[in-house]
Write a structure and sequence with these properties.
Elements: E1 2-6, E2 12-13, E3 22-23, H1 27-40, E4 44-46, H2 56-64, E5 71-76, H3 83-96, E6 101-105, H4 111-116, H5 123-141, E7 146-149, E8 154-158, E9 172-175, H6 179-188, E10 191-195, H7 199-215, E11 221-230, H8 234-244, H9 250-260, H10 266-272, E12 284-286, E13 289-290, E14 303-306, H11 308-321, E15 323-329, H12 333-344, H13 356-372
Parallel strand pairs: 1-4, 1-15, 4-5, 5-6, 6-9, 9-10, 10-11, 11-14, 11-15
Antiparallel strand pairs: 2-3, 7-8, 12-13, 13-14
Helix pairs in contact: 1-12, 3-5, 5-6, 6-7, 12-13
């Protein structure tokens, strides 16, 4: 079991859909979140990708120099670069970080954004291109001399002179809910990722990808992407969930949903189906699984909500299905990283790092208690929204 946190390179704040309580997304804040995750014992952090985010590769390189154990799950977007360039970037960052790189393969989702980046392939074609891309990428990182003549990419005598620290390649994380996405994930991924759907739906995807991987002669691990809202009591947690969307109105939600509706991602469609009735509907779609975030946010739209024991129990339910990698986030990300680590980590069993006890005892007690008491402003500089 591994637990990763999230670097909010598209911005952060105390509420969704408003500038109220927002804070600037800059290197100082990213460093605060990354160093907190490093000290608290998170396995790593996910860096998002897209035109609304800072570049994940450059951000990871900057934050690797500011941390010691933390791993960086960095987005690789086939179609926006050549596989040989991606292999060199992967190897370089893995070497500079001393083996702390994880690769998150992203096939796309928003045709409008993809067109702006010069990628015009349709949904299933993109996964065909990903398949070819990763075939070359894997071969180069494994030290092979690659000759490949595909429909989408080609290589003649390709080779990588400087190998990565992690052999044969850094681990590949891959999300794709469509049949085409699952097929490519079964062939190439080390960890198949799903959005935070109810356990029964997650089980179906796990079993499907596991069977396809077996046909490829491979074994795949499984991960899930969720938000979390944990407080000392269930009542406090649900009140915090309500506050998070308290500034949303129908106009803001409708505008966000119109943008998300143009996505051709099967995973995004499945997320949208969880909250179609809007803010006033019952957004608890499964015990302690809340779909309120997806009202205005693309991608991960659900959160585990509850007290520490309840949240830990829900995590273990997913673990029983076969989920080993959990990628969490929470608003604001700095404070919530402390809450989650201090309240839930003691109830779970995973590799948290040799220094975790010390971080909980000294810095964890001092800063964590201040955060829970609402006094974090004394120690952390919050930036005004743009």
């Amino acid at each position: 079991m591994e637990i990763l946190w999230f670097i909010p390179t598209h911005g952060d704040g105390r509420y969704l859909g408003t500038d109220i309580g927002g804070r600037e997304a800059d290197h100082t804040y990213f460093k605060q979140v990354a160093q907190a995750a490093d000290r608290l014992g998170y396995t790593g952090v996910l860096l998002p990708t897209g035109k609304s985010c800072e570049d994940p590769w450059l951000t990871a390189a900057a934050l690797a120099a500011e941390t010691t154990r933390l791993k960086f799950l960095v987005a690789l977007r086939p179609g926006l670069m050549q596989p040989s360039v991606a292999a060199r970037m992967t190897s370089t960052l893995d070497r500079l970080s001393n083996g702390r790189v994880l690769i998150n393969v992203v096939a796309g989702g928003d045709p409008v954004e993809l067109a702006g980046d010069g990628l015009f392939l349709k949904h299933d074609e993109r996964y065909g291109a990903v398949d070819e891309f990763l075939t070359i990428w894997h071969g180069l990182l494994a030290g092979e001399k690659v000759d490949f003549d595909g429909k989408y990419v080609k290589s003649e005598g390709g080779e990588l002179l400087f190998p990565p620290v992690q052999q044969p390649t850094p681990p590949v994380y891959f999300g794709g809910s469509s049949p085409a996405g699952q097929q490519v994930a079964a062939k190439h991924s080390d960890v198949y990722l799903t959005w935070g759907e109810p356990p029964a739906q997650v089980r179906e995807k796990v079993e499907s990808v596991r069977q396809q991987a077996e046909k490829e002669g491979r074994k795949v691990r499984f991960g899930i992407r969720l938000h979390v809202i944990v407080r000392e009591t269930n009542a406090e947690a649900w009140a915090a969930a309500d506050r998070l969307i308290s500034h949303l109105d129908d106009e803001v939600i409708d505008k966000a949903q119109q943008t998300l509706s143009r996505y051709d991602s099967a995973g995004q469609s499945r997320m949208a189906a969880l909250h179609r009735q809007g803010k006033e509907a019952d957004l608890e779609i499964s015990p302690n699984l809340w779909a309120g975030i997806g009202l205005v946010r693309g991608g991960a739209g659900t959160a585990l909500v509850g007290d520490p024991e309840t949240v830990a129990a829900r995590i273990k339910e997913y673990q029983d299905i076969g989920i080993e990698s959990f990628i969490f986030s929470g608003y604001p990300h700095l404070e919530e990283s402390y809450r989650f680590a201090e309240l839930v980590f003691p109830l779970l069993s995973f590799g948290q790092g040799e220094d975790l006890g010390r971080s909980r005892g000294n810095i964890g007690e001092t800063i964590g208690n201040s955060i829970l008491a609402g006094e974090v402003k004394k120690r952390v500089v919050f930036h005004k929204p743009e």
